[in-house]
Design brief:
With 141 residues, the protein is mostly beta strands. 13% of the residues lie in helices and 50% in strands. The longest helix has 12 residues.
Length: 141
């Protein structure tokens, strides 16, 4: 059997936006993900709603650019969570991106500046901490 249900859903967007305060009072600075980018996308899992038990696919590429941490992901058609995420993404019901991290270097203050982070995961989410961290394009293979 083949068709839209078997096709892989891919997306592109920003998991983090630089120099914009998020809902938690943090601001990510350019270079914060340099080590993660150097390690490559295979080192970072793609999760559904930050749930460690719900991987939904894989990150195919990630890079820092002038706007933030740009990612391209492929959702799995073989996992229930991946199929659910793909359907909601295609329907436009979910468009947020987010990331899990550990702080290596930050400048404290009224707004905490995140300067060096261990990137733990990237997630497709309903409510991103950074409202501008969103999926910009969706495609089927």
């Amino acid at each position: 059997m083949s068709g839209a249900d078997d096709a892989a859903t891919r997306f592109a967007g920003y998991a983090a936006i630089f120099d914009r305060v998020d809902r938690g009072g943090d601001v990510v600075r350019p270079g914060a993900f340099a080590r993660a980018v150097q390690a490559g996308p295979g080192a970072v899992p793609l999760l559904w709603q930050h749930e460690a038990g719900k991987p939904i696919g894989r990150i195919e590429s990630m890079a820092e650019d002038g706007r933030g941490l740009r990612v391209i992901g492929r959702l799995s058609a073989t996992s229930g969570a991946g199929r659910e995420a793909a359907a909601l993404l295609r329907d436009g019901a979910v468009r947020g991106l987010s990331f899990g991290y550990r702080v290596r270097d930050a400048k404290p203050g009224l707004v905490r500046e995140l300067r060096d982070l261990d990137l733990v995961e990237v997630s497709l989410v309903t409510f991103p901490m950074q409202p501008r961290a969103t999926v910009l394009a969706v495609a089927e293979d």
